[in-house]
């Protein structure tokens, strides 16, 4: 039995040595793989940093281009602003004049404001003056329920250069009669 026991011990000894060799080999492989992994991680980190830097440079370049484009558009817009404003003011002035012509707004300071003129047979113009009663001359609301807000007053003869026969009238007759405000009537 000594021989079997000795063979068994040698077998166990050889198995332990192989296990230690295998463990050392695996330990060495693991350290090699860890070193490769660390190297790969550093390389990937560098690649990612380079790509990030390229991306930020590209984005900064785009932002700078957009900023320059915006600055250029703003400069153009400001240079055209006075032209557009003048065009709008002219358009609004024309619309206002058209509106005033169409609606004949009443202006108490203007001598023929709120008047309607009709040509007379003798070549002069007969002008019917109207007076607006109420608080606001722009609104056609009666100030009193029984009164109209637009009341015709007097006819005024406007002298025409086309009819010289009227100019021979005395000066007192040539002058237009004053337009009353309706309170004297």
TrEMBL record:
Q: Name one GO molecular function term.
A: kinase activity
InterPro entries in the record: STE20_Ser/Thr_Kinases
The UniProt regions of compositional bias labelled Low complexity, in chain numbering, are: 160-172
**Residue numbers spanned by region Disordered:** 57-185
Basic and acidic residues: compositionally biased ranges = 57-102
Q: Compositional bias (Polar residues) at which positions?
A: 173-185
Listed A to Z, the keywords are: Kinase, Transferase
| Name the UniProt record assigns to this protein | STE20-like serine/threonine-protein kinase
